[in-house]
């Protein structure tokens, strides 16, 4: 498939352009506008707003940040009309129907950055070569810039080869993957419900340049929660008995949460990553907020951890006479690739020169909310798979010097194109 | 009132006899039988069983111990008929009506011992003089033997002086004062509801021989609780998630109980005095029992402590998925002597040669469930008071060498007789 | 002492001027400059900087806020030379020696505001009459503006009457009374060590206009602490064992702190008013900060609470493998007025028309760090007292509509002048 | 190896005899006497007492139970001389040297019972056939009776075949395997330090009759601990501040112990199986005892759990002002069979008619302290393996109706004899 080379410059340039303008989850208005315009330029029908995101199912979306992001987009060339079309929700779905009978393939690429200050040191290639983030405190430090670049190049390639294809392709550009927040809303919109096949991928992770892992495991099921306790303040000297101590509810919940028993059937995790409680030194604390997460090797174990946590959170509210609120802020599930799709990937990757196909179970070792969409597709009878496109990287994911070996972009596009061809070629 | 001397030998002998046969709370069958027979011998109508104890209101009564105590009584000369009359409940009420119109006076004496091994060392007078406890592990180490001896002598004296009196007298011999368990059931029986006056006393405490404190304060309100958590066992290695950890419920309740906020209006206390939990080292503990108590300077503060404790106990059950049970094991309230009765006591004690009347507020510094009956009498319009009869003692209450200066018995009887005379003399 | 009327306008105007420019503790550079210049205008020798504050003993002083406050002062007319003289420390001591042998009297007035947003509603007199705070978020809401105004008027009066006096007077204008932070440093400087007499006062509190309480009690001993735990972060999913969980140290310390046993000898208190811990949701928290306080009815009880707290804080650091740091942020002790000074106050206040002298024990119900200086004076053989100058107030201390009945200022100045006269008149 | 049949009756009879006289760990005096006498009858040199047990390294040995057990032994026919030889320590080592140069093989059999009341129901074979436990509350419910029977038969067989062998064999009859207590002391005695080969086995577990698992995994590393906190009592009403609350130390340690973070590298466990604390309801608890255990999939993880637990136990002692004591009560490690020994077992078992050799990794799912000796042999350059001899069982290990299919005894003896032959045949 030698004509893939034709998209090389696009792959690099688009990735570098997007790298300069990182936007965090649910705030990717400028990014989404760029995607929509580019995809429409290729001839796609592009849906956005509540057509691709179910507002009721949104997790971890902060209205204040959304508002500021819209303002930022306006100040950076996005039109009000475009913003209106988005209805406050980022991400989009580009559809191309070949007009020929055939299956529907949904492919998913995630688009958000993470809140990390990118390095400006000379040994950091984006700094040295001039495509470092222009937004202090934000950085594409998990490779979603490369994901989008690959998605756009694949869309371009598909449009160029539409006549050789049958069926229909849907490009899902998903917001807010970090914190596993965005997929739930996109899945709930039903946009992928008609997919016969679903594919998604991540760059780098545990694979080196040249490797393609087609049977990754260890997508940890996880639920992210914000817990708020509301009590009543009182003067700690004069009338401590009059207070309802929200910090007491939170701290006692914390110690019990850490003590949720290990599960005999497999790995579990729990963490309270942030706790903020109280007002003044001499006031019985009336409010406490915890940002926490549970994980499990399986959905059953994750559910076990979640349910035990809820019992504890509730029990401590009762014990301390406080009110409590639990908000789900993110969610991911596990995934087992359908064997049929694994075979597609094996051939697609195997056909690429220099690629080592890894079909041993490599541990993904993290959470990915593409699994939410994948499992919904599977539940409706479709077939789904997730693969990892190896790429050397000088530094870990989410760190200030993260970068990917750009040669992997060519490899990745070819694997994607081969897979699409295998599924949709006439 | 010189004829009081006539009862001196009785006072000493009865006290010493009872000292040899101590019985713990709710188990005083042999003691009660002795009291009933003696009082009937003086011509009293004596009520016992459910006529003087309301079974529904009994606190801290252990049926197994009761059964064993009945067996012990049978083996020590108490007839089955007498036991039948008691209906399983110890204590009695002896009534004598003068036949002349007049008020009803209720006087209360407590009858149980405590589970302490009495000293047999030669410097311990009961050992040296041969009236040491004959029951290993049990001892009249709080002076209730002296209380009963005084009560019987007073009853004897009253019967002898009946013709000089009006109205009616009721002698309440109350079981299970230790742990403040017995008064609730006696009060609830209504046996003292018709009392116009109520008097009770304690020997020794903070007063020396010759002192009579007529305005003691600091009767701490208290509630004694047994808390049981029931969870589910599981193998701690194989399937820890399958357990419901009752020890976790108890330990987390414990740490929260100690953290109940101090009350701005006055003194409060909390203690968990015993905690027993778990089965085997490698089993998730399925049962935990806590013996605890709360106290408060006022009924309001004690109630505050109790209610907060209940919230915590319940909340921790929910948090750990366990069942819980709270049993009230004892209860005492505070008491303020009615001024009218203080005056009676002032004169009654002041008339006794060698007595120093203490009407400054001396701190009783403990709980006494006579307060339960006293407050019930007050609530129904009667007048009540509690006084302390000083007595030198070689060792602290509840210790193995506790003893009282027996000269105080003569003093005490005279104070009592004077008070009864003041209230009931024709 | 009718000529006190001459200072009426000064009392009001100065108080209102200072009310417009509130500065918080350790940041009162503009205020201190104003005081120094005014006092020098009256002919006083004025010491400032490390001559009146011992830097080693400073509590709760935030260098960043100090720096910003110096900048604010520069921008509002304070000269660099004046700031240099202050050496970074606010507060001052004005000394006037009569040249005649006699005792040394130290009088203390506090100068800081609190961080409250003042009301601008028309029913709030400072708003209606145009002397509301000009600094958003800061307000003289505890009457220290009135204290300073009184202190300056008294200094003026004393300078005017110097020829009638003997001995020496020292006006201590103390920074950072809120949070009981400033007195420790001022006391440690030794500036009051030569005082034969010490007097301080507070306006309003539990006394109405016209009342002067000369025997207040209930100055709670207190120690304010900031506790920091430093652990080590780790990825909560991948390697939770690699972390040192500072939040675990803090939460477990919290639950144990609340459980410090009540003290049998009197009232104790503990509160953790703020807890901030953790970084990201999926990171083992590596840092936690608690703002807390202990109190005791006596120094012994406060010390008991403090020492138990330190044990717990240390023990939880060891238990969780974290480092810890305890910083003392404030301190106050209890005080018993010397009877000799009470007599001075009784006469000084009694001589003022319309004043009701309250010599019954009125509960101050809070902490005041003037006690630190007072107890140091007492320890060195001097006599000390603290009194409360009643003043009607429409709203509670520390609230947005706090204000004082300005008529109390005249009364207060007269009481002060009478007391000074009693102690220093030729 | 048809002559194995000759030992059939011995196998059954000895097992049944030992089944009637179960003795718990460190108390197997009667059992050890029986073993010693039997082995000496076969011509073995038998060592016992401190020659085979290092007293310093004994875990979980209760002197009071030992004393009672010696008394029981005396009453049941064991001579004082025999007891003297044992020096208070059960277990023994029987040595036979062929006189020919060759390797030393150590084989280990465990001898203690567990405290379970054996069933007397007719469907329980030992009850029906008359070899049920004669000691109420004790039962060979884990098959150690079969282990001993096999060991004795193997010793008999080896003595009968000594002329065909070279080198030396050592039979280790190890006490106190339950609670993984006995092996540490036996290993520390050095009795197996000269072994070139080490073999041990367990009956039943996860294998059915006819199966022999030669590569079991999942020997959980574990450490069993008893933790004692000693504080100081105080009257909970009068002077709660005077106490040092051992229950507070224990409960706070408990909640922190459960919260020890999961280990990223594998399975970990923690349990506090028993907690007993406190004296009376109104006494600040001065003593608390916890029986607990940690486990880890690897020695590294178990050590991690242990060290974190120690930090917590110590930290809570400091936090609550108590003393603490940690006693190691048991210990087991993991084990990987040496490949060379696996091959020996494969052939030894494979040669037995009707045996299915299981060389897939079967999960042992528990702890076994034979691993302690095995790892010590490996550390000194020897080769070691542990195998599981399948046996059908009507009920789970440690239950009242546990029993083993006695046909497995013949199979087992043949496997053992084959393995010994493979290692020691001339």
TrEMBL record, chains A, B, C, D:
Superkingdom, natural source: Bacteria
Cited Gene3D superfamilies: Zn peptidases
Co-factor: note: The Mn(2+) ion enhances activity.
Sequence ranges assigned to domain Peptidase M20 dimerisation in this UniProt record: 226-300
GO terms, molecular function: dipeptidase activity; metal ion binding; para-aminobenzoyl-glutamate hydrolase activity
Keywords recorded for this protein, A-Z: Hydrolase, Manganese, Metal-binding
Annotated binding of Mn(2+), by residue: 142, 144, 178, 202, 398
GO cellular component: cytoplasm
Co-factor(s): Mn(2+)
Biological process, per Gene Ontology: folic acid catabolic process
PANTHER family for the chain: PEPTIDASE M20, PEPTIDASE M20 DIMERISATION DOMAIN-CONTAINING PROTEIN
NCBIfam families associated with the record: amidohydrolases (TIGR01891)
Protein name: Amidohydrolase
